[in-house]
Structure formats: C-alpha cells, structure tokens
Amino acid sequence: MSERPSLQPSIDAWTHSIEAISELVAHLTEGEWNSRTECPGWSVRDIVSHVIGLESEALGDPRPIHTLPRDLYHVTDETSRYMEVQVDVRRHHTGPEMTGELEYTIIRRCRQLRNDKRAPDHVVNSPVFGPMPLEESLRRRAFDVWVHEQDLRRALDEPGNLDSPAAEIARDMMIEALPAVIADRAKIAPRSAVVFDVSGPMEFLRTVRVDEEGRGSVSSSPSLGPVATFTTDWETYARLACGRMRRRRAADRLKIEGEQEITNRILANFSITP
C-alpha cells in the first residue's frame, strides 16, 4: 500500500488500463495498427503513440524536435498541435517498435510512481491543463488512459473494462464536469434543472440545477420539472462526454426529452476532453 493512500486508487486504475492497452496491442498485425479510431485523424498506432508520449513527458523525457505536416485537418489549435507532435513522430514506427516502447515506458513509469515521495498536494505542471496538485494530475492520467483504452477496444472490436477502476474515475470526473457543461457552456437558464439517467455498469441518476445567479450544481436527487432529460447507457454517455459520438450517431441509444433548442445546446457543449 502506498504511503500516500489518496493517490493509490488513481495509480491502480492507471496501471490497470495501461496494462490492458499493452495486452490489446501486443499481437496486432501491421494492418490493425492502421485501423481508424473515433479520435479524429488518429489510428490505433496514433492512440498508442499519444499514450507513450504523455507518459514519457511525465517521466521527464525531452519532447521530440519535430515539424508537423501542414495538411493534418484534425490539428486545429495549439493544444491539438502540442499533442500531435508525439503522435506524428511515431507514424512510421513498426508494430514491434511500438509495443517495445510502450512496454518499456510502462516499466519506467510504474517504477517512478512506486518510488515517488511527493505529497498529494504537490503542484505539477500539465502541458494542457496547467498547474495542478499531483493527486488531480494522476486522476486525469487514469481518466485519459481509460478513454484511449476504450478507443482501442472499439476500433479492434475487443469490448471490455467498462466497469474497471479507471471507469469509476472517469464516471466521477464526467459527473463533476456537468455543472460547467450545463451552466457555463450551454448557458441553461437560471432556476432550471437537467437530468441524466444512465444505465449499465456505471449507472447513475444525476440532476444538474442552475441557481438564480446562473451557477450549476449536481446532486443525486430527482427533479420534478427538468427542462431536459437525457436517458442512455454508460458507454454511449462516455462516448458523448469524450467527443467520440454525435447526436445523430447516438440516436438509437439516446432518449431525449425537452425543447430541441435546449437539448441541442447541451449536446453541442457536452464534450469535456481537449
């Protein structure tokens, strides 16, 4: 058990998901490495490259010196440009090169996490999210790796781990983001409520309420008169929240009640991933 018990759940969840990724890609053919995923512009190889790249940076490895091509349609801002460097630099790596680097990165990162003595509130710098406590940084790494594990599972038709330790962290982080999604981004009117009823291995029922000042809060108590209600399964919810699926594709798995203008605004602002 870690000397920092508040960090251990995130470390365990991250370990579970990144080892699952390693197992998923261990015996892929070259064609399977090129399979498209739901991440715009990214293949299976690109997802694994992204995971390797971020974990390498967490280890303190220098970033590659690399110039991106100008025709990458999915690179639209500085965040996506930053992420793409670690991906594009590995685009011509072979399967064995990818699995070898991934396995070595996991070994090094596990050793780092095992020997790390920093306190949970120690501030670390995230290249995307800026300074944050180590505890939050590790939660985000578990979340990110689980999301990409699911990207790979869908691309390779290998479903699983929708109820894993990292899935629990992902669910909690998605729920925590709901007040900002509803009140700040979708700008739902004050004194309104929006309900999310999610079934499956990570089932939950949550109500997001917007108070008189326009601030959002989330609770497990039901609302008798919500302006919108979304009913779906856990995998669909996660894909929507991570920008992997749009309303049209989710139509047969998503029940929506409420005025279309309001529900469209919510879904247009629903993704919480960069």
UniProtKB/TrEMBL annotation:
InterPro entries reported in the protein's UniProt record: DinB/YfiT-like, Maleyloyr_isom, MDMPI_metal-binding
Pfam families: MDMPI_N
Keyword Isomerase: yes
Mycothiol-dependent maleylpyruvate isomerase metal-binding domain location: 15-153
Name of the protein: Maleylpyruvate isomerase family mycothiol-dependent enzyme
Statement: the UniProt record of this protein carries the keyword Heme: no
Keyword list, A-Z: Isomerase, Pyruvate
MF terms (GO), sorted A to Z: isomerase activity; metal ion binding
